[in-house]
């Protein structure tokens, strides 16, 4: 995260791709797919919390969702979300493995 206009621009123009461990693409959306820009979703959350008498605190992290249709994760599978264009010169990604059913 950077508090710069350039980073805000990259948030809006990045491309978010979600794949599963077979390499199958489950979703691909631009940053603008979330209320026109991910920062709009953050502002909406802050306003909604304020109406409930709560607030975001400095240093709290937000995870903005909505880059894919609802997907039911399958136990034992790994899912990767890739953010292209967010970081200069390289994509960023995060993966999660869903625990197998007991």
Can you describe what's shown?
This protein has helices at residues 5-13, 38-51; strands at residues 15-20, 25-30, 78-87, 90-97. With 102 residues, it is of the alpha+beta class. It has a 4-stranded antiparallel sheet. Strand 1 and strand 2 (25-30) form a beta hairpin. The longest helix has 14 residues, at 38-51. It starts with a helix and ends in a 5-residue tail after the last strand.
Mean pLDDT: 91
- What is the radius of gyration? 15 Å
Biggest sheet details: 4 strands, antiparallel
Which parts are unreliable, with pLDDT below 50 for 5 consecutive residues or more? none
How much of the sequence lies in strands comes to 25-35%
How many structural domains are formed by the residues?
1
Count of DSSP H/I helices: 2
Helix content: 10-25%
Structural class: alpha+beta
Strand order of the largest sheet: 2-1-3-4
Overall morphology = globular
Give the helices and strands as they follow along the chain.
HEEHEE
The total strand number stands at 4
Oligomeric grouping of the chains: single chain
For the terminal residues, how far apart are their CA atoms?
37 Å
